[in-house]
Write a structure and sequence with these properties.
The radius of gyration is 30 Å and the shape is flat. 20% of the residues lie in helices and 39% in strands. It has 3 domains: 11-82, no CATH class; 86-231 and 312-356, no CATH class; 237-309. It has helices at residues 231-269, 277-309, and strands spanning 12-13, 18-21, 31-32, 38-39, 52-53, 55-57, 63-66, 70-75, 78-82, 84-87, 98-100, 103-106, 115-118, 122-124, 132-135, 139-141, 145-155, 159-161, 163-171, 175-176, 179-187, 191-193, 199-207, 211-213, 215-216, 224-228, 315-321, 325-329, 332-335, 340-347, 352-356. Strand 30 and strand 31 (352-356) form a beta hairpin. It is built from 2 helices and 31 strands. The strands form 5 sheets. It has an 11-stranded mixed sheet, with no helix packed on it. Strands 11, 13, 15, 17, 19, 21, 23, 25, 26, 28 and 29 form an 11-stranded mixed sheet that branches. It has a 4-stranded mixed sheet with strand order 1-8-9-5, with no helix packed on it. With 362 residues, the protein is α/β, with parallel strands linked by helices.
Length: 362
């Protein structure tokens, strides 16, 4: 059950975490050898305070805590906490997975099978193969990704890449690249492919806030599905969650009534119902339902943000859009039968309309 790939993982700390405790010197006691001779004690000598950066010395003058999230290491007898982890060469399986609280910068390639997680951003100067990337902030792939249908990229920030091939992508911010080939993409922001090629070929690509591309599909009429807007799944989920929240609130109101009755009975009879099994059961249900309600309300808040941000989302194609491309906007669908140039697709009440594209290459 040992995760051998993570054996070489980075030693990370969080802000406020105790990283060292100094133990003051103590006076030794004289001893005796096996022959009865005196062995003089060595008296302890106080050491100098720890040197380095990225940590604080507490008021007790013996406890040291990290002042930031990051990587902790020794550098020439100094303790250093760094918010950035740098890999000078390639990230290889032999070196293990990388899991770091902070930013990660890899100056080489990322080998297939490697897992990289960061609470901050991930920057890869080389080419990423069939690996797994997960970031709390932005992901930058200067050399692109060759996913081989085994790669996944997930981030709460934005993505900038040269290209993606055969990759699963979940991006909560905007996504900018030159080529998406046979990828499965869900982007909560806007997708922009306005580089030299700026094309999407094959796969399924969803952009909640809209999409701008130089071209869509290819002359081989490869099936390429484009989804913009929140989609019927978001609206359906929103309705379900709103109904669930309403029912939970009604149940909590009934529980509050039951607890109030115990309070009234306690005052009328002069008897404490604190440990009554029925009251205890109501309290447990209240705690569980309150936690569930808070979680559901947060999900609804996020769904409403997605729905609001999707208003007016459209698909802008600066140059060619080929047959085989399918445009989806909520419940509406349009399958391209003929090649078109410089067109923008937008949602009408009962169909997907077209107009000249006003977007340009940056």
């Amino acid at each position: 059950s040992v995760d051998y790939w993570s054996v070489h993982s980075i030693e990370s700390v969080t802000a406020g975490q105790v990283i060292a405790v100094y133990h003051p010197a103590v006076s030794g006691e004289d001893g005796m050898s096996v022959k009865g001779g005196l062995v003089p004690a060595k008296h302890g000598r106080e050491q100098m305070p720890l040197k380095g950066k990225g940590f604080d010395r507490m008021d007790d003058e013996v406890t040291y805590t990290a002042s930031m999230d990051g990587k902790i290491e020794m550098q020439n007898d100094r303790i250093v906490v760094l918010p950035v982890h740098e890999v000078s060469g390639n990230a290889e399986l032999a070196e293990g997975n990388i899991d770091f609280r902070g930013d990660i910068v890899i100056h080489g390639n990322v080998e297939s099978g490697v897992s990289i997680r960061a609470t901050g951003s991930i920057t890869i100067d080389g080419v990423a193969e069939a690996c797994m990337l997960e970031a709390g902030k932005d992901i930058i792939l200067r050399g692109g990704m060759l996913g081989g249908n085994k790669a996944s990229v997930k981030t709460k920030g934005a993505i900038t890449a040269k290209f993606f091939e055969f990759t699963n992508i979940l991006c909560e911010g905007d996504l900018q690249a030159d080529v998406l080939m046979d990828c499965s993409v869900i982007c909560h922001g806007q997708i922009r492919l306005t580089g030299r090629k700026g094309s999407i070929i094959g796969g399924k690509v969803q952009a909640i806030r809209g999409l701008i591309a130089t071209s869509l599909g290819n002359d081989a009429e490869k099936r390429t599905e484009i989804f913009v807007g929140a989609g019927i799944d978001v609206y359906s989920r929103l309705r379900v969650m709103e109904k669930k929240i309403e029912m939970t609130r009604e149940e909590l109101a009934k529980i509050e009534e039951g607890l109030e009755k115990f309070e009234i009975l306690s005052k009328e009879r002069g008897v404490s119902y604190t440990n009554d099994p029925r009251r205890t059961s109501l309290l447990r249900i209240k705690i569980k339902d309150s936690a569930m309600l808070a979680s559901d309300e947060e999900e609804v808040r996020k769904l409403r943000i997605l729905a609001e941000s999707s208003r007016g989302a459209c698909v802008s194609v600066i140059q060619e859009i080929y047959p085989g491309v399918i445009i989806n906007m909520d419940e509406l669908k349009l399958a391209l039968k003929n090649m078109a140039t410089g067109v923008e697709f937008y949602k009408l009440p009962d169909k997907i309309g077209t107009r000249p594209c006003s977007a340009g290459v940056e």
